[in-house]
Amino acid sequence: MIHLVYAFSPDNQEIKSPYSITRNLYNFLKSKTDIKYYYWADRGVIDVKPNDIFIGHPHYDVGTVTQRTIREKQCKLMCTIHPLHTASPEHNMPFDELAKKADKIFSICGPYWYDTIDQTSFASWKPKITRLDMAVDGNHFPYLREKFNPIGSRKLVYIGSDMPMKNLGYLTSIMKGMPDVQLHWYGCVAANELSRLPNVETTPPVRLDANMARKIVDECDIFINTSNSDANPTTLLESMAWGIITSCTKQSGYWKDPLFTNIDLQDLSASISEIRNLLNIPNEDLMIRAAAGRQAIETQYTWDRFCNTIWDEI
Fold first, then answer.
1. Is residue 123 a contact partner of residue 117, using CB atoms and an 8 Å limit?
2. Is 128 exposed, middle or buried (0-12, 13-18, 19+ CB in 10 A)?
3. pTM of the complete model
4. How does pLDDT run across 107-151, given as a tens digit for each residue?
5. Helical segments of the chain, H only
6. Which of 35, 188, 216, 257 has its CA 20 to 30 A from that of 161?
7. CB of 117 within 8 A of CB of 126?
8. Which of 133, 141, 181 has its CA nearest to residue 157?
């Protein structure tokens, strides 16, 4: 028996994470063996048996099921599963006691956080970690790129919130340094310095259906993410699936991969130069990169790979 604890319900139909993680992982494991599902905010302790396997997303409340079950029970295999990024240790250090007791840690994180964990307060976790790449369903995020806008009229896009980890102050500085370039921000919920810039257009949170995806792809060419501590933003993969070119900090989790142009949090002028280079690449070269990004979505960032990585470990 597998006991799985995650967010929301496994019968949800949402395409964004973490809803999509719950649905895809639950259905995969259900096709393999007996499974019971629990909501991560449920309270109490699960009565696991000696031969059971427990896989749980921790909750910050110590009375919830993952917290209590790992601390108080034993079974064949105790595993945690959750996003990991280390530049903001307060997000994950509350799970340190669970990490010490767990047999395995499934870390949803880009390679940057795993590759650099030895120099952080999470170094002791590394021997237990299996790194998971986020995934998207290519059927829900179809390839839409037919051409890029002409050089001189290309636009940037950011899809997401203004949570502190998204580091929009740095994006504001980039856009101030590029007054001739337009940014469209999808997901703006309140006015701030970025939203008030004359070269920034804002749209409240929207459902990323086919019509909205087509609109974003036709308008915008380059996705920009300036996170300072972010596990594995799914919006980068969703944009890549559509055919948008991706640029991001290594602190977004993605690095040493030519499909993600890294911009430097410590060098504003270099970041602006990188973005300008992308905006001036010939259409045919961008189309080659867009096609390569789509191939990665269909071969690397898949739910089969995500779920089979866990299955192989348990």
1. yes
2. middle
3. 0.95
4. 999 999 999 999 999 999 999 999 999 999 999 999 999 999 999
5. 19-32, 65-72, 96-101, 111-115, 168-176, 210-219, 234-242, 268-279, 283-299, 303-313
6. 257
7. yes
8. 181
